[in-house]
Amino acid sequence: METLLGLLFAYQVFILYYFALLNLLYAYFALSGLAMVARYARELSEVALKDLLEREAYLPVSILVPTYNEEKTIAAAVGSFLALHYPEFEVVVVADGPKDRTLEVLKEAFRLVAVDWVYRRVLPSKPVRGCTAPSSTPTSWWWTRKTEARRTP
Length: 153
Description:
This protein has 153 residues and is an alpha/beta fold. The protein is built from three helices and five strands, in the order H-E-H-E-H-E-E-E.
């Protein structure tokens, strides 16, 4: 009987060491795999982002920014849009009759000048009262000033 108990105890110790070793191997493989994935993701993100942005398959994008009394935040918002990493885009800021200094803040922050811009009216809307654009910047963007909602065209 004692021989059987000794064999059973030895078997239990063997199973314990086997599972401990197996779990240590699993932990090692998981950590080394995680390290490889992190290294691969770091290398891929740097190379792939540059590769994706340099492709000519991307279409130009127009970012429309509707504003109404945004004097305090409009310069930071437009600045963040202009800081995007995209091959070709334009930012169109549309004001719907603001009653504060939104346009003046943008003119000061981005050196906007009045431009004559001819546009084709596709959808029914209020008339455009004026357009401004930056005097010198590589990314094109526009400020469009619509007629106030209370006025009649």
